[in-house]
Amino acid sequence: MTDAAEQQSDVLVVFGITGDLAHKMTLPSLYRLEAANRLDCPIIGVAREDRSAEDLRRTLREAVHAVEQQVDAEALERLAARLDYLHGDFADPALYQSLAERLRDAGRPLFYLEIPPSLFADVVGHLADAGLTRDARVLVEKPFGHDAASARELDRRLHSLLREQQILRIDHFLGKQPVLDLAYLRFANTLLAPVWSREHIESVQITLAEDFGVEDRGSFYDAVGALRDVVQNHLLQVLALVTMEAPRGADADALWDAKVEVLRAVADADPAHAVRAQYEGYQQVPGVGDGSGTETYVALRLEIRNERWQGVPILIRAGKALATTVTEVRLVYRHPETRAPLDVPAHAAANQLILTIDPDPAMRLRLLSKAADGTGSRDVHLELPFAAELGKPPAPYERLLHDALTGDRALFSREDAVEETWRILQPLIEKPPAVVPYQRGSWGPADADALLPTGQTWHNQDDSGDDGRSSDGDTAHGGGGGA
Ligand SMILES: NC(=O)C1=CN([C@@H]2O[C@H](COP(=O)(O)OP(=O)(O)OC[C@H]3O[C@@H](n4cnc5c(N)ncnc54)[C@H](OP(=O)(O)O)[C@@H]3O)[C@@H](O)[C@H]2O)C=CC1
Ligand SMILES: O=C1O[C@H](COP(=O)(O)O)[C@@H](O)[C@H](O)[C@H]1O
């Protein structure tokens, strides 16, 4: 491949166009790009089901109307007109011959693999055999591998067919605006940078909670589980951005270098400091194996062995069917030593910096103030809702699909970062802790409380409290306590 790597793709081929991700994210994102006049190529969807291009266009209209409040009908029809469909089994070489015929006039295709991860390398092999990869880019969904060895093997197989410049490893969290802005927030604000270390911070807590279950993704999810689904990729990427040192340059590689450096300082996860759990009722989800031991919740305590973070518990948890839907980073600050002379209650809440990534991106500072009547103290919150202050950013897949089509690689994962994340989690994959149950609508199992040092708690966003209005949103884990 020549400089085509940096050039605009002239056709997009979506493998897995009938799947869940395509319906929820890809089709609506392509519509938004079309409506913003940022799309300029034909699109071919490929999947197994024998259906017509017109069926796919119908699915497109449904998918867009399901998520957009106001639809630009003209843009939607323009997009529909770009859309074509090809069916066949991904294992069948004839499919790639048919595809090659359709791509006769294309010079720089973008192949987007949103398919079962076990098929990534085989599909690229077939594309190469059909002579389709010379000037192509390949956009690969997550998870990239299912453990450290398979990630390396997948990389080896892809590199036997493609050059690194042709491989785009997508992690849609890297396209979320609050995640993108983390480095800027940290290093452009002299107010924040000096208090971002073990000297001031008691714990870092990263939570991805979802109030919905696995629903219709049983067969995919049961083979993956929470650790591989969202921790190895999304949350460890967030962790790297929260804890890295300042990048040494403004380019994308400098940022990746900084992230890889801190990931290398993360000690291997210890199974004794991890909890795996499964929500009650999970085993009845269609596609889930009888007696499945897959975790729908995971919590772990990690350790970063460097000067900035030594001794600070790094607490990560992710789960389905929890009390609410929120993805956030909390820096929980140490209690001030000057409390006694100020008459601050010993149990007053610690300061926190809360970065909400979803659903309503915002930064909040939780501070302690003297009560107006002078009789005690109360929590107060300073809130910066990003959308209201800064405008609505593009959705992650909209941004990343555009970057992939135009050859901008900055927001796609680097292999060394991917391999470090698997290295960190490998002990949990080799010796997974036993799965314990938790109730739907709770904050997960009580066992997760034991991951914290004595005197510390998980800080949950809950409906009544931690929304910036009332005094305390801290709640202990549900321990099976109901919704
Ligand atoms: N769903 C989500 O929220 C997210 C998913 N992802 C990633 O996206 C990828 C796809 O996930 P998802 O959409 O949920 O998966 P689905 O199972 O819903 O979709 C898989 C797609 O691949 C097609 N397919 C599977 N096997 C074959 C085959 N042998 N031959 C032809 N077509 C085949 C299916 O076609 P058919 O239906 O006709 O069989 C379908 O279009 C995964 O890597 C996942 O990790 C990433 C982020 C979020
Ligand atoms: O990759 C995935 O991410 C979603 C969570 O992402 P969000 O942007 O919707 O918050 C998760 O629900 C899904 O299981 C996982 O595959």
UniProtKB/TrEMBL annotation:
Q: Which SUPFAM superfamilies match?
A: Glyceraldehyde-3-phosphate dehydrogenase-like, C-terminal domain, NAD(P)-binding Rossmann-fold domains
Q: What is this protein called?
A: Glucose-6-phosphate 1-dehydrogenase
Basic and acidic residues bias located where? Answer: 460-475
Q: Where does NADP(+) bind?
A: 48, 89-90, 142
| Keyword Metal-binding appears in the UniProt entry | no
What InterPro entries does UniProt report for this protein, alphabetically? G6P_DH (IPR001282), G6P_DH_AS (IPR019796), G6P_DH_C (IPR022675), G6P_DH_NAD-bd (IPR022674), NAD(P)-bd_dom_sf (IPR036291)
Entry function: Catalyzes the oxidation of glucose 6-phosphate to 6-phosphogluconolactone.
- The segment annotated Disordered runs over 446-483
The EC code for this enzyme is 1.1.1.49
Q: Which reaction does it catalyse?
A: D-glucose 6-phosphate + NADP(+) = 6-phospho-D-glucono-1,5-lactone + NADPH + H(+)
Domain Glucose-6-phosphate dehydrogenase C-terminal, by residue range, is: 184-458
- The entry's keywords: Carbohydrate metabolism, Glucose metabolism, NADP, Oxidoreductase
Per its UniProt record, what Gene3D superfamilies does this chain match?
Dihydrodipicolinate Reductase, domain 2, NAD(P)-binding Rossmann-like Domain
Its pathway, per UniProt, is:
Carbohydrate degradation; pentose phosphate pathway; D-ribulose 5-phosphate from D-glucose 6-phosphate (oxidative stage): step 1/3
